[in-house]
Structure formats: C-alpha cells, structure tokens
Amino acid sequence: MSLPKGQTVCLINLGCAKNLVDSEVLLGLLAEAGYIPYPDPAMAEVILINTCGFIQPARSESRKVIREALRHKKRDPNKRIGVLGCYVEKEKESLKQLFPEIDFWLGVKELEKIVPAIQGQDFSASRYTFLYRENMPRLLSTPPVWAYVKIAEGCSHGCSFCTIPAIKGAYRSRPLVSVINEVKALAEAGVKEINLISQDTTYYGRDRGKRHELATLLEALVKIPGIAWVRWLYGFPEEINESLLKIMTEPKICPYFDLPFQHSSRSVLKLMRRGFDGRQALRLLERIRRYLPDATFRTSLIVGFPGEGKREFQDLVNFVREAEFDHLGVFVYSPEPGTEAYSLGDPIADQEKKRRRHEIMALQAEISRRRLKRFLGRKMEVLIDGMANKTKTIYYGRTKYQAPEVDGGVKIPWPEGKKPPAPGLGWVEIIKTGRYDLRGCWLG
Length: 444
What we know:
Distance between the termini: 41 Å
Mean pLDDT: 91
Strand content: 15-25%
Helix content: 25-40%
Number of strands: 18
Order of helices and strands: EHEEHEHEHEEHEHEHEHEHHEHEHEEEEE
Structural class: alpha/beta
Low-confidence stretches: 1-5
Shape: globular
CATH class of the largest domain: Alpha Beta
Largest sheet: 5 strands, parallel
Number of helices: 12
CATH architecture of the largest domain: Alpha-Beta Horseshoe
C-alpha cells in the first residue's frame, strides 16, 4: 500500500479517558491540516504518543511505548516522533536527556500546537492555556453511539498524594454553552450516550462562583433530541447537593455515582488531605439511595498509604462491606516526588500493600455478584455498540448502571447467521448474573 509521505500519523493514547479526549482533539486538528490518521506505527510517517505521568506504573508504560516507537525510527530514520501530555509536562527535561532521538515534545498546555510542532515550526504557549472548545475538530475513537465530553481541565483540590494540580494547573470549567453545543453536535452525529468527565466533575462551575452548575448542565443536556443517556464520572462527595440529587431522578440521567472516597479512616484521610470519613460516606450513600433506590455506586480506594496500620485497614474492610458498592477499584499507594505525602515516606512493604488490595478486591467481587442479582429477570434497556466475539455469536451491551470501559456489561447470545443488532438502544431480559457481567436475551 502506498502511503503519502509526511501525511500519515499514528497516535498512541495512554492513560485515562481525559487523555483520550485530548487525543481525539489532536486527531481532529491533524485531519483538518491534511494529515491522515493511521493505526500502524510501523507504517505511519509520524508517531505521536500521548503519555500519562500520574503514577510510576503509568510512567513506566510511557517509557516502554517510547522505546518501541524509537525502534521503528531506527528502521526508518525519516520517521518523526512526538511525545506529548502529562508525563512531558511533569518531567520534560529528564525525558529529553533519556530520549534525545525524539523530534519534539509537547506538554499539556501546548497540545493545540501539534500541527506546527509536526512541521518543525517554532511555537510558544502560555501557562495552562489549553482547554478544548466545541468548535475544535475532534475524531471520536469510541464506538459511534457513545462519547466522552470533557467539561473542565485541572484541579483545585489539595490531596497530599496527587500530582494533577502541579501538572494541569487549577480547575478551569468550560463555558456552559460550549459543552451544550458540543453535545448537540454529537447527538446530530448519532451519539446516544454522553459521559461527562473531568478531574472533579461535581466541581464544575465552582471556579466561576457557580456551585450548582453541574445540575444546570445536566438539565440542559437531557433536553437535547437524540441523547438517551447522560452520565457524569468522577465527583467529590462534598459536592453532592440537593439540586444535583433532584436532577439525577430524570430518566435520561444514569443513576450512577462515581465517588472516589479513597479511604474510610479519619486519621488516614487527614494525612491524605481528604474529607468525608467512612461514617459520613455511609450517611451520604443512604441519602442518595433514598432519592434513587436503584442507584449504582463506583468508588476508588488507596491501600498502603502511610499511617494505614492494621486497625485502619480493618476499618476500610468494614467500610467496603457495609457500603456495598457496585463497582470498586483499589490502587496500591506509591509515593510521588513533589507531593506533600512524599515526605511521609513509604513504610508499608509492597507485598503487604498487594495483599491488602487482594483482600478488598476479593470482598468486593462477592458484593458485586450479590448486587447484580437484583437485575435477574428484569427487562432492561441496553446500549449496543456493535462489539461482538470473533464468531459473532455474542454481542455486548451496557445498561445505564454500567459505565464504559471500567465496568462489566451485558453479554447477549446471538444465533449464528442472524442479522446483527444495529448499534444503539434495545431491550433485553436478564437471564443470568455473574460477578461483573450480566447475560441477556434479546427482545429487540
């Protein structure tokens, strides 16, 4: 296959959904400038790597991918490689020394300079300027029926373990009308499910002095024709207020609460500079369940943080057992240079941290299995994105209680040779439940 020289670009995205949106905007800017997205880094004229620098495992993965790209460059010295994103923002100079063969580097504040960077032009950017706008081109990489929409950049919380404020700056909300217009355009393109994301989605508008702006945004989005589901991901429990709970009862808004409590022990949370101990968290969950009895909850926790002794860990285990989350992720603490918590050291052995993570995940697996049983026999609406196994005898969907990429889904047996379901919404009857997934009989 003949490829136009200097025009094909392979963009490799690493890290979170927020990075994915940045990569989609970058692809849009490149396509607008005449570049052609291409999936194979060995064949593309330009390789771009959008890195994650949040924790050590993410940085290790980024370095591994950079080395793989440089092997392609060694075989084809004319190939250009650009490294972008959070890791670059955090450690650009050390990365330059480690990988002098890289052609250009762009931190998070410079991303919209991607075209002049590829072309070898000089560019400059002021501090933390990048905040994508609804009129910026964007090439979706998700299935055509759902999309992420990033509503803000940065973070203004002071968690002692986190590097995000140092990397991305203070919280900056996109204008309300900008988000609404983007969602309207996505709806016109056939998107059915919108997943709102940011470092703290419940903080939306607070930087402009508007405490209830997420509720205002949700109220506007459910009125957009074509949009069937709206979900927000990653919020702080302190920001859950009455106006938000009231709008969450709207049928188009997924009854899904993604609240990273991080821990339950008051003493550990104090060292983390986080609010909401386990008792407060349980009261909040009870309050939400009064509004929405079928609400689904996801949380993330950190084990092995300095100060987490046997008593504090047992407090966390008891909290998980009592809270009955539907979905849960556990991170093993790793000290990050430049954070306040780094000075606390790393007193808990890695093996013990991993043991604690395993204990909580094993407990959560049984809770998740039990929670899913409430759906058995129900007729439920699912979003089919067209994904299937190799033989096309099972198609995959999600209910509004399951977020994309991080949760389980619904497996739908499909007779061989039968016309596949069109991507979009349909109905199934749940005939089996498992630890993380459901199985449904297609109703149409």
